[in-house]
Request: fold
Amino acid sequence: MKRIAIDMDEVLADTLAEHIARYNRDHNEAVTLADLKGKWLWDIVSADRHERLEGYLRSEDFFEDLPVIEDSQRVLRTLGEHYEIFIATAAMEFPNSFGPKYRWLRRHFPFLDPHRFIFCGDKSILSADYLIDDQPRQLCRFRGEGILFSAPHNFGVSGYRRIDNWRQAEELFLSEIDK
Reply:
């Protein structure tokens, strides 16, 4: 059975929506996803607010109640019948995220085996056939096939097979089963 490793932030959990919501709330602004096409939030926010942006990620509650990316639960349940599913989330940069990320995964994906949750930094260490991630830097050293999950910050990135949503992921991986 082939393995799929899947990133959490911006692939399963809508981290960016929470980041934007907190920023807009605290600074009385109206940043939207459209403002971020091809950019990171840090690219459009003034430098004097960068420390506050990072502070959100370091807070104890940031990763606890993130919105779930549409269709991810249904599709992962289906793919789990044909593939070994691993969740590989970068958590080294924000150590406070371990507990909240684990609880979030257990709450929203109770059908996944928690022994297959991997909290890491550099994902090149993973042994899987596929890695779905929104970060090209995680895909470039991965030994299997890296699949880029579309997000505003990776708009102009090429060189990887790309999926825009979980319905496309379902089509792709169900068509790969017998290959």
